[in-house]
Amino acid sequence: MYLYSSLLQCASEHQPVRVGLIGAGKFGSMFLSQVPTTPGLVVSAIADLEPAAAQARCREVGWEDERISSCRFTDDAATMIAAADVDVVVEATGHPAAGIKHALLCSEQGKHVIMVNVEADVLAGPYLAQQARQAGVVYSMAYGDQPALTIELIDWARSCGFKVVAAGKGTKYLPDYHQSTPDTVWSHYGLSAEQAAAAGMRSQMFNSFLDGTKSSIEMAAIANAANLRVPTDGLAFPPCGADDLAQVLRPANAGGKLEFSGQVEVVSSLERDGEAVPRDLRWGVYCVFEAPNDYSAACFRQYGMNTDDSGRYSAMYKPFHLIGLELNISILSAALRGQPTGTPVCFNGDVVAIAKRDLQPGEMLDGEGGFTVWGKLMPAAASVAARALPIGLASELRIRREIRQGQVVTLDAIDADRDTQAWQVRERMLAQFSQADNEKAC
């Protein structure tokens, strides 16, 4: 049955899908704006560090007084997760440790969880998803975010019998963006700090989009959910527009830019000289696939597919993603179908902390999008072998020894309390998803 038909049935039977939201930031607010026009779905409760501010955001996005008064606003996420009137929990804090805590509580309480929090997913997602499966609930990526939309294209291609060659997204990228800080970020977006503040845009969060960290996190999530490979030396960000995906994103031995067939990659909307790429995919996602035989390749030509010069590689893409405006798809898929819109199945990719500048003993790391480190995608096996510090744990840690710009921050270079839940869950994930088990699971 179509999701919308199921929703109408839920509405007619007065048995709506009941949602609890954790984190009423930008993503959460975009989701909340869709609730009044979605029959058969209600938000029972919203947990936020500032409940009054969350209530104000509901009014800003168009909630009427009656809807606001029927929703509980709290700063106690654990109690909300346990509430009897919550079927699906949306974790939208963006904080890795909080995301791990909330995902595990959802499994304990038998609640589906939609992980907008990709940071937590990349830090320990395979373990969190395993716990959810054992509890009989859904752990899902968030539709509207680029990883889930990319997974949808990958699933389409594989289900049609095509071999997936590359998958990922577009972004605005130049090599020097890796050194961007919250103090320099707004010039790259064509904004002043005052304009950004007026729009409610947080400099550290937007800097993580620019400095390569968010791209690395999202590609690791895709690699772990779709069993795709990760480039040996991280993302290359080749400049590429929508019309050239099949030509550029094919293996090097076939004339393209890929290290492997079957890998994740991000394409840049800028040439290396800063010129704009024609028909760029800055806001979109893509999947490049290969015809399995000559007949299929001939069909590509007959039906107007945009192919490489051999005619064997083609691509599908979505030019935009609508963030929280599309989140209902994940919520309803979990609640009504019992299916995720993407979930980690193995540990192929990891994101590690790289020094943005020379770091001295005694300095404190400030995490994703900050002044000290950016997150680089690495093959999981290489990350574990190097004892690299995951970007999701690289916050409020003191440095023990000098780390040169561009070096991987290793576990022996920092002081950390490894008895916290986030560190312990990460260790459990590493123990359960060793390389041998990982290959078997995938």
What can you see in these coordinates?
- There is one protein chain.
- By secondary structure, the protein is an alpha/beta fold.
- The protein folds into three domains: 3-144 and 330-337, Rossmann fold (3-Layer(aba) Sandwich); 147-173 and 212-321, no CATH class; 349-441, Antifreeze-like/N-acetylneuraminic acid synthase C-terminal domain (Type Iii Antifreeze Protein Isoform Hplc 12, Alpha-Beta Complex).
- Helix content is 38%, strand content 18%.
- It has 18 helices and 15 strands.
- The chain has helices at residues 3-12, 26-34, 51-60, 65-69, 77-82, 96-109, 118-135, 146-159, 185-188, 193-198, 203-210, 213-226, 245-248, 294-302, 328-337, 380-386, 421-432, 435-441; strands at 17-22, 41-47, 72-74, 88-91, 112-115, 139-141, 163-171, 263-268, 285-290, 313-318, 349-355, 364-366, 373-379, 395-399, 414-415.
- The strands form four sheets. A six-stranded parallel β-sheet has the order 3-2-1-4-5-6, sandwiched between helices.
- Strand 4, helix 6 and strand 5 form a beta-alpha-beta unit.
- Helix 6 packs parallel to helix 7 (118-135), helix 7 (118-135) packs across helix 17 (421-432) and helix 8 (146-159) runs parallel beside helix 12 (213-226).
- The model has no long low-confidence stretch (mean pLDDT 96).
